[in-house]
Design a protein that fits this description.
Strand order of the largest sheet: 3-5-4
Order of helices and strands: HEEHHHEHHEEHH
Strand content: 5-15%
Largest sheet: 3 strands, antiparallel
Radius of gyration: 16 Å
Shape: globular
Distance between the termini: 45 Å
Length: about 140
């Protein structure tokens, strides 16, 4: 029987637990983290910085879902959800697995949830101020 996405997530979490710095595990250890320059890191945060993609990621953190389920949860057209999933898959935030006639999406690395929770905790103290920001990005809030 082929391994499922849940099996892969467990393997990733076990391997990641061996390579930690502070509270967050570093994929591949310190050497790989050092090779991720500011441009790549900024791009990673930009991927998570889109409200629709963030809603998709948060829904997938709860459990694996199909595109149809994500369309209903996010309230965006199917084409937009599919485009966002393609972006998230390319950046290895999510992974896809074909199950019969359906493709099921899940989180590729369980540490993404910790990253989002850490960001939410930091932003919580400044939420009203952040919502009124007019210097960065379109008017999302």
């Amino acid at each position: 029987m082929a391994p499922t996405m849940a099996d892969a997530g467990r393997r990733t979490a076990v391997g990641a637990a061996r390579r930690t710095r502070g509270d967050l595990a570093i994929p591949g250890g310190r050497a790989r983290a050092a090779r991720c320059g500011p441009e790549a890191l900024a791009r990673y945060f930009r991927v998570l910085g889109d409200p629709t993609r963030l809603r998709i990621v948060e829904a997938l953190l709860e459990r694996e879902r199909t595109v149809s389920e994500l369309v209903a949860l996010v309230g965006a057209p199917q084409s937009r959800v599919s485009n966002h999933l393609a972006c998230l898959k390319w950046c290895r935030v999510v992974r896809a697995e074909r199950r019969g006639r359906h493709v099921v999406y899940g989180i590729a690395d369980p540490r993404v949830g910790g990253l989002i929770e850490a960001a939410r905790a930091v932003a919580a103290e400044h939420c009203d101020h952040l919502a009124s920001c007019r210097r960065i990005g379109p008017d999302w809030v």
